[in-house]
């Protein structure tokens, strides 16, 4: 699996966790530190976390909220 494929897989898994474990909906969000902890609990190491968050934002699945948290977009919620 290439780095890009792994990053995509991690980003999709993060969205799944945000919706099904953290019970977030479109427009809900978490700060980057909390998202990092969610990823860490599920085996995504610190070195892969920022690329995962960046990828999810680049795809339009997450967006930066006013308070600095990363929020799930409609597109991101629909992936789950």
Summarize this entry quickly:
Helix content is 59%, strand content 10%. It is mainly alpha-helical. Strands 1-3-2 form a 3-stranded antiparallel sheet.
> Distance between termini?
22 Å
Which fold name corresponds to the CATH topology?
Arc Repressor Mutant, subunit A
Tally of DSSP helical segments: 4
- Report the count of strand segments: 3
* Unreliable spans: none
Structural class: mainly alpha
Number of domains: 1
In the CATH scheme, the class would be Mainly Alpha
Give the topology string: H per helix, E per strand.
HEHHEEH
Helix content: 55-70%
For the record, the CATH architecture stands as Orthogonal Bundle
User: What is the CA-atom radius of gyration, in angstroms?
Assistant: 11 Å
What is the 3D form? globular
The major pleated sheet works out as: 3 strands, antiparallel
The assembly state of the depicted protein chains is: single chain
Mean pLDDT over the full residue set: 93
**Strands of the largest sheet, in order across it?**
1-3-2
Explain this structure.
- The chain is mostly helical.
- The protein has a single domain (3-79), classed as Winged helix-like DNA-binding domain superfamily/Winged helix DNA-binding domain (Arc Repressor Mutant, subunit A, Orthogonal Bundle).
- Helix content is 59%, strand content 10%.
- It is built from 4 helices and 3 strands.
- It has a 3-stranded antiparallel beta sheet.
- Strand 2 (62-64) and strand 3 form a beta hairpin.
- It is globular.
- The relative contact order is 0.23.
């Amino acid at each position: 699996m290439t780095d890009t494929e792994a990053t995509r897989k991690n980003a999709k898994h993060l969205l799944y966790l945000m919706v099904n474990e953290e019970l977030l909906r479109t427009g809900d969000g978490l700060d980057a530190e909390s998202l990092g902890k969610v990823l860490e609990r599920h085996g995504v190491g610190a070195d892969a976390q920022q690329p995962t968050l960046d990828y999810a934002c680049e795809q339009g699945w997450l967006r930066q909220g006013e308070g600095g948290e990363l929020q799930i977009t409609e597109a991101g919620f629909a992936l789950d």
